[in-house]
Amino acid sequence: MSLQTRLMTAVIGFVSLILVIVAVITSALLTTTMEQQLDEKLYTNARGLSTLVEQVPPSKATVDNVLPAQLPPVSPGLLFAVFSQVTGASGVIISTDEGAITGTATTLTNAQLAQIATALGTEHIANATIENVGSYRVAVSTTPSGVLIVTGLPRDDIQNQLATLLTVIALATLGGLILLALTTAITIRVSLRPLRAVAATAMRVANQPLDRGEVTITERIPASQSDPRTETGLVGASLNTLLDHVDASLAARQKNEERMRRFVADASHELRTPLASIRGYSELSLRALSKQSPEEAIEGTTSSLERIQAQSLRMTRLVEDLLLLARLDEGRELVYGTVDLAQLALEGLSDARPTAIDHEWSIEVPDEPVVIVGDAGRMHQVVANLLANARTHTPAGTVITLSVAQEDDEAVLRVHDNGPGIDPDVRDELFARFARGDSSRARQTGGTGLGLAIAKAIVEGHGGHITVASEPGDTTFTVRIPVNPTHSAASDSAS
């Protein structure tokens, strides 16, 4: 059963129950009121007839002897019966002609009188159903001489008015329920429109292939059906927010896949070259051993083994970088101790200066040590990677400045150069793994895209962060590390 059907059933059923209760209460109150009015008429007629009965001796107390030849003014359909131990039971129903005050009397049979006596029982007033006459409201009274007088009035008016009232209530209820059903259906349908829009949008999104390739979710709930001020509109607004997050996640996934593909290509290239060299020098050495003299073979084999060793070291560095990133992700590889960042910067610049003598190198460190709690070896790697990045991506003559300072509770290390700057298209992803500032695979400018990612992972492992600001002629990498990181002790205990 749909939500709309359940809501309509609940509303119409509840309203119907209320209307039925109102109809029952109304009919009961109306019946009581009309019977009270009928009882007042009944007592009035009874008093008049009691006067006539008292004028007749008990031995002659019959209806024929009591009633005069000319009937007094009475209510239409008045029932009059006399029950006497001497004369027995007799009774009539006085019917009046239309527009006349008096009328004629119809004699009641013994069976009809018995029905009246049975209805009264021990009560002084009751409702009696008389055969071939109808329903009557009857009351009994006793004269001083012991004669029982029964008077009654027909209940036809009460029943007719009650039937008319119930008919009107039934028709009004039926019409009201039909109108209520239509109004409720329209209201619920309009109110649930945002939910149907949500279901349709979710179905369209579910039918899209989201597991592969570049995916963009453009489906959204219209603004008119996603008003967060309403309950159903809030569902649409929430789905739009969810779709925005999913779309952003799919875009991030696609970028990661592209980076992974680039990395696989870069890593394959980086590994293919040394592997090809190792294979070539191995074949050359084997050929020399089989065809050349021992002296020449030893000389050629020695040179080949040196080249094989160099290429093996190159592959080892790449594999170690990947392993280092994996271990940093797991919170391992950092061994905390006291590190003088100023001294470490001096050593890092001394190591980098001979690798690029065509660059100008400068260092700015304070006279006092800048001490942090960290891993000296990994922090040295951060400095080396930042300096190598500046050296690799700037032309000859570029001035590279390495500075260290303490600002409040942070140690700050900056690497600045006046080179051409960083392409804005890659600046936001510069520290992502496998990201490359140069899309070429040249060893001089391309790299594997792991250097800055490793630097970022190490800095974040120390509780710090690394940022870059770049424009043509002014590029600065900034590393900020807390002097006393709160997690260092925990890391020591964990290791």
From TrEMBL:
Its EC number is 2.7.13.3. Residues 266-485 form the Histidine kinase domain. One of its GO terms (molecular function) is kinase activity. Residues 189-251 form the HAMP domain. Its main location: membrane. It catalyses: ATP + protein L-histidine = ADP + protein N-phospho-L-histidine. CDD domains: HATPase, HisKA. The chain crosses the membrane at residues 7-30, 162-186. It comes from the Bacteria. Keywords: Kinase, Membrane, Phosphoprotein, Transferase, Transmembrane, Transmembrane helix, Two-component regulatory system. Signal peptide: none annotated. It is found in: Cell membrane. PANTHER family: SENSOR HISTIDINE KINASE TRCS (PTHR45436:SF5), SENSOR HISTIDINE KINASE YKOH (PTHR45436). This is histidine kinase. The lineage of its organism: Bacteria, Bacillati, Actinomycetota, Actinomycetes, Micrococcales.
